[in-house]
Every structure is written in structure tokens, then in C-alpha cells.
Amino acid sequence: MDRKSSPIDQHPVFTALLASPTTVLVAADLAGAVTAWSVGAERVYGWTSDEIVGQPLTMLVPPDRVGELALRDRLLAGEEVPPLETVLLNRDGHSVDVEMHWMVLRDLAGQAIGTLAVHRDLRADRRLQQAVRERDEELRARFAESPVPQSRVDLEGRILETNAALRELLGRPAEELDGSNAVELYTPEARPAVREALARLVSQEVTSLAQEHDVLGPDGARVRTVTSVALMHDGGGHPQLAASVVDVTALRAAEERIRVEAARYEALLESMPVVVFTYDLDGRCTSSRGQALAELGLEENELVGADLLEMYAAMPDVEAALRAPLRGEAAQAHGTEAGREWRGDYRPLRDGDGAVVGGIGIAVDVTDLVTAERERRASEARLSSLLQYASDVALVVDRDGRITYVSPSVTGHLGYDPDQLLGRSAWDFDHPDDRGAVEAGLREIVGRRGATARFECRVLHADGSWRWADHVLTDLLDDPAVQGLVVNVRESTARRRAEEELRRLAVRDPLTGLANRTLLLDRIGQALVAGRRSGDVTGLVVLDVVGMSELNDALGQEGGDQVLRVLAARLVSALRDSDSAARVGGDEFAVLVDDVGSAEDLRALAASLVEVTDEPVDIDGAPVPVRLQAGSSVSPADDAGALLAAAEQAIPHDVRSRRVVVRSATSEGELAQAREAAVERLRAGIGSGELELHFQPVVRLDTQEPIGAEALVRWQHPGRGLLGPSDFIPLAEQSGLVVELGEWVLRAAVERIAAWYADGRALAVGVNLSPRQLVGEAFPDLVRTLLAQTGVPPELLILEVTESALMDDPGAPGVLRLLRQMGVRLALDDFGTGYSSLTYLKKFPVDAIKIDRSFVSGLGRDADDEAIVTSVVSLARAVGKTVIAEGVETGEQLDALRALGVDQAQGFLWSRALPADEIERWLDANRAAPLPARRRRPARLVSRAASSGGADEERILVLHAEGASLHTIAAALNAEGRRTPAGPRWTTKTVARVVADRLAPRLDPGE
After folding, report:
1. How far apart, in whole angstroms, are the C-alpha atoms of residue 940 and residue 982?
2. DSSP letters of 443-465?
3. What is the mean pLDDT of residues 239-260?
4. Is 723 within a domain?
5. Which of 378, 510, 841, 964 matches a 20 to 30 Å C-alpha distance to 385?
6. What is the pLDDT of residue 254?
């Protein structure tokens, strides 16, 4: 092709596109010889323009695809040729998937002189498509295996698919649910609202909503659920509904992104993620085109007339690059616009005589490339830092398994000098029984550059012992800088011991060692299954310790715990080997008997257990009278919960009663009525002022100064007296009243904080939350409203949530993040009683963790408890959390907690939970905490006239951080007869004294 005769060859846009590294252009003459080769083509295929121009196009075409070049002949013959997806070869002989768009090149006379092909590299598209397929498969697997009940429903309300969790909740098989009407799953009274919600979703009035209704569970039982429904599309783009009883996050398909990506290539210019613009000698834009204009929020040619030099005056590199073409020079520059990274190529724009008449720029969005490069460099920096400074043991192992590098930290962790290990086989230090895990990890990564495998195995310490350690293997054998497998080793022996203890505690009551409620329910379920096969009757006895709250108040928590331990021991001693004892509540025990002869036999057993455990308990040499009441139930029962609930309901309400009641677990109607009556009594108590808050102080361990309190709810029951939380919180949880109860507690606590704050007492108060309060965004809105109404600083409110609530509800961490953004502090309560603590703590946006009292009680005499607390403190320090210990009773425990580095604590060692007026007196006697620093207020000058008549004054400079602390200081000075001004006053005179609250900054002598 005669380049001089081609009008497009000298077109400035074409010249600029040939110079662009992101545009792949290949021109050929009529004979098929390459005549033009862009910088982008050089990047993709490897040949330079000098090497390829003049060569036949067949150099790029695999032998089995040469026939596709016939498309050029059809194009030159005047036929319309569609885009072609094919495979070409690069310089190294490797295949490149491309899409080619052809056009005919003509001379000034309109004669065809060759062809121009725009190549689009499809390799990134292929990777994206594969990622989409893998993501789709992963989502389907997650749906099927999710512990959250979920379903998919079409727009007619027919169920398309359910997961196992939903089928278990409803007690129906898949064949019964699939194809059925989803509305029929709800109770009759709920169905109109459900139909209305479905209609709103189908009409797209809303795209998602949540409703609380009863669904029909197994055997028609009512199950209260919060159902979240969202409009979504399947892989084919068809609309449908996704439903979840907890929280549903609809994943949007990636097809739309692929469609947008493909649309950019519909035409040569519009299909590329670029902005092409021209400007005159004054720097004013004369045209602006390109698909990427949309990313800047601009329309085509919207920039015309704009002074680009003035627009980018604040970006010197870009401005200089814009000016370079006006001098006849080419330039490049990088910049940030609309949150995206751009690379601009700028060249002179010349007229027919070659004179510069302006400039042309091509701006390419390189955000993804820049991000990838930054991540690569960061990864290399992390690896370099790891090998040099890691506190874990880091090794590099060559292809033969020989150690070529080991970090100095190996001495502290495994006892070896680094030189002892160089050249030795790394696998010789792994326990023979763990070779399977090692080999599996190697198979997973070898041959996959950058791949990572994780496993745990035992390694040989220099002293000959075996230590458990976590291993992370990364394949960098092909990296010239490393040439080996990078192995990071972290000793996990202590963590495994702690996790084993946590697993034990997950099913055992830490105070008595008996089975807890979870293990008891499991054993009941097994007994019921066995009983249905054998015909045996299963019986359950529940024993309630009368007046346990009063015992705790009288004896202290440690004394109360000793009572419970003695009762547990007596209970176990009175049972057969086949019977099971458990502690199912704060003051409640249970005994499972799997082969009861009759209800009368069970009643007799219950009476004997009451008699055995009813003897006084010796506490420090003094007999303490103890009274128990019993209730019992017998099978048949549908589930373990029904049997346990029946036995609990059978306990007499009259604390003076010695009668033992045996209830059949099949009397569901009677049981439901009793439960409903109890719920209504609690509901009335919430609304009629029967609830009250008590406060247990929290102290700093280094000074034992009170810095806060935990709010604990009590119920002044008309018939049963003052009840502790364990007597009614489980009922509130089961009935759903816990949300209403929790709102009452929160309101009362915030109002009490506000009252104290107004009196100049800044006391941070912790409030316990139920998992049900964390569903949705209503709770953060409530907290925000209460803080705004009362003026309470958000840092004075501490919301406490159990770790099990966070792990069971995937939406809870998001709600906590909303609360944390308000400035409210968050604490993780009963830490260590859930097995997943060590794994998930880092994910939770909490400020503090509270070590459960079950671990604190053994400090000073139980090495396992001390190991667990040590692990928790170390873990908290690693992730920047404050550590608070609960249930501190003795000076021995206090000394141990101080030595372990615990920050704060609460317990009977300082005070039990007290009513508001009593806690105020306690705080006054133990120095109340000052108000938190919010901003520095102006200093005030306080003066006192001299007794001689006031000619001379003693000036006192008062520094304070909050008005309330100033009020306290001023009141004290006024009591001495001093005169304090109404507002801040400034003076240049010398002051005699400086008075400051503890939050005010220190003054240098020069100030």
C-alpha cells in the first residue's frame, strides 16, 4: 500500500491511534503485506513495526486458520464482513484470542488499496467469563449449604427452589415445597399482607422489603420469622424473588458488566475506554469524543470551548503535557479525575503545511492497571518484610525441598540457630503422622505460581518435642527473586489447647462441670428417638433453686457459686449411671431419665432428688439453708424443647409449695396457654413500671477507680418479688418480647446517663443487647434518636453483644458498624464461650472484649483458665481491643488479672449491682470518673478580693475540658468565698495558682 496516497494515513487521529499502546491496528495492502502496525499491536504480538511491516499477514495466522484470510477478499469484493473471533500467533508462537473488525482502505480516488483491521484482545474477556461461571457455581453451592433458610420464588409466587435449612424449618420435603404457592406457607391472617408485598415487588414499586409474620412450621405449628425478600435476576436475566428469614443479599449477575464492556467495541472509537479531544493554540477544546466521557460525567463535545490549560492549572504535570504539542512536541502525563486514574498521550495537531495548529490528546482509563501494579509492588514489599522482620518463622525451600533461607525468629520459636537448618530437608522436621497434610498442601500449590495453601501439622523443636504449628505455603519457584516455596510457620500449640477447652465449654457448664442446655437438648433428642424404637418412656426432672438471687446478694457471687457446685455434686451422687444431669439456667438443674416406668415413678424420683439436694450447704463453716422446687415431664414429645418446656412449666409458681407435678409433654395446648399467660404477665410488667435498672460498677485495674457501669434489668414481680434476668429473659427471648424489653432497658439506661451527665458525672454505661435487636437498621435509628433527644455523648453508651449473636447472624456486624460510626462504643460479651472466638474476633467492629466469669473464677488455682485468659489478652492486644474481666470475687483473682495485663474489671470484689441511688453513693465514695474530653474550653480567671477591701486580687487560672467539670471547680472555689466570672476572661496579669481537671492539657513552664 502506498502510504503517501492514503488519506487516512496522514489523519492525525489515525497517527495518534497508531502511537497508542492500548489500540491494536493492523493495515495490509491488497497482497496481504503489513503496511501499518500500531504500538498496541506491538504490545500484544511482540513484533515491532520495523520487523513486521512488509511481512505477510500469514505470519500471524496459525496454519489451520489461513483460510479465514479469505474474508479480506470478500471485503475487498464489496461484501459486508462481520467481526471475526479467531486465534492468532504472537512472536513467541503462543496463541492470542482476538476479535477483528475489518474495513477497506481507499486512496483519494476512492480505489481500494488495502484493509485495516482493529484487533481486540479477548483473553481478559475469557478470564472474566470463567470467573462468572465459577462465581455462579459458588453461589448455588452457598445457597444449598447456607444455614440461613432461603428460597427462590417466581413472580407468580411459585417456589422454584428451597435449601435444606428452609425445608428443615418448615418440616416439609423439597418435592412438597417446589412448585407450591409461597403465600400458603404463612398463616391465614398473614397472607393478605404477604400478597400485597409480593405485588409491590412484582410491580417493582420496591426492590426489597422485610416483614415479620408467622409461617406454618411442622404439624402446623406457628413459627415467627422475619422474612426479607428482594427482587433479583437469574443467570439468564429473568426476574425472580429471593427470600430469607434473616438477611438476604442479592448478588447481581455479571452479564450487565460484560454487555457494557462489549458495547464499547461496537465502533472503532466509541468502543474504546478512551477520551479523544483536540484543542487550539490557545488551549481551548475544539472536540471531545469517546466512550470514557461518561466516566467523567460528560456528554460528547460537552468540553468544546473549555480552556483546558486553565482547567488543569492545579495539575502541573497535565498542564505541561498539554502545552508540549503547542511547541511541536509529544508528551505523556498521568492524573486523577472523577476518582479514576488516567494516562494521557498528547501530540501536535498540524495543518496541511505541517504547521502546528493545536494539539490532540488521548486519555486512557488505566485505573485497573495502576491498581494491579500497586498491589504487585505491595505484595513484593510484604514478602520482603516478612522474610526479614517477621516474628513468625519464615523459610524458603527450593525444588528439592532443601531450606535456602530461614528467618532469625526460628531461634525463639523452635530453638534452632538458622545456620543449623540451611541445606537440610524441610520435610524432615514434620511429624510422620502429618505427612499427608504436608503432601496435600504441596499438591495444591506446586506448578501454580503465587498459589497459597494452608495446613496445620507438628514440627520438631530443637529440644526433641513436637509443637503444633500453622503453615502457609506460597509457590514462588518461578519468581527469579525467590526461586522457592515460601513457608510461613506460626506455633499454634497454645491456641489448640485453648480451642480444645472452648469446645469442651461449649457443651459443659463451666461452674459445675455438668452438661449445659445445648448438650442436654441433644441427649433428650437421642433419648426420644431411642424411646420411639424401644417403647421406653423418657422423663425429665427440672429443679429450681428458690431465692437464688437473694442467696447471691447475701453470700456474694463466690458463695452463691459454691452453693450451686454443692447442689450439682449432690445431684450427681443420687443418679444412676444411665441418667444425665445438667445445669440449664442460672438457678435451674435438670435430670434426664430415659426409661421411666410411669409418671408416678418420675414424681417419686423428683421428690427424692429434692430431698437429697434440700439439705443446708456449709459455706465457710456456716450452714446455709437451701430450698428447691421440682417439675417434671414425660414423653411422648415431638422434640427435646417440648419436653424441657413442659418440665419447666410444671414447677409450682408458689415458692412455698413442695408439690411435684408431672406434666405430659403431649399437652401442647395447656403448655401453650401457660406460656402465653407468662408472656402477657411480662408484657404487662414492661408497660406498667415493674422493671428497674441496677448498675454494677466497672473499674480500672491499675488504679481501681470506677470508670463505668453495666446496666442490669430487674423485674419487681407482684407475686414472686424481685426477679433477676435469668428468671424472665429466656421467656422474653422465646416470645419475641425481648425487642420491646431491650428498648425499655436502652431508653432507661440512656435517660440515666443523661441525668448523671447533667449533674456533672460522666459514667460510661454498658447495655446488653439481644441478637434480635440487631436485625435490620431500626435499632441504629433508635440509638441515634435517643442520643439526639437526651444530648448524651455517644462514647458514654457501651452496647454489649455476645459473640454467638455475631456469628449466628451474618448481618449483625454491619449493624454494629453503623453504631460504631455514631461514636457508640461496642463490647463483645461472654467472650470465650463460643468456639469461633479466635477465628472471627478481627472481623467484629468492637472496642472491648469481656472475658466470661467462668474463666476468671479459676485464676490462681486453674492453669487452664490462666492459659485461656492469657490467650485472650494476647489476641485482644494484637487487634487493639480493651479487655474487661467479669465476675471478679477475690484479691487472688485481681492480682492474676493485673499480672496478665487485663485493663478493666467488674464483680462482687467491688460491688454487686445496685439501684441508681445506691450506685451514686458508691461512686461518690470511690471517686466518680470525670467527663470525657470533647474539646478544650477557654480558661477562666477566678479572683478573690483581699480582706482589706478588695484592692488586690489573687488570680487563679482554671483549665477545663467540659463545662460540667468547670461547674464543679467553680462551686468549690465559691464555697471558699471566691468570685468566679460568668464567662471566660482573658488577662495579661500574673496568676497565683492554676487549677485544672484531669482532661485539660498540661502547661509547659513557658506557657
Report:
1. 9
2. HHHTTSTT-EEEEEEEEE-TTS-
3. 53
4. no
5. 841
6. 35
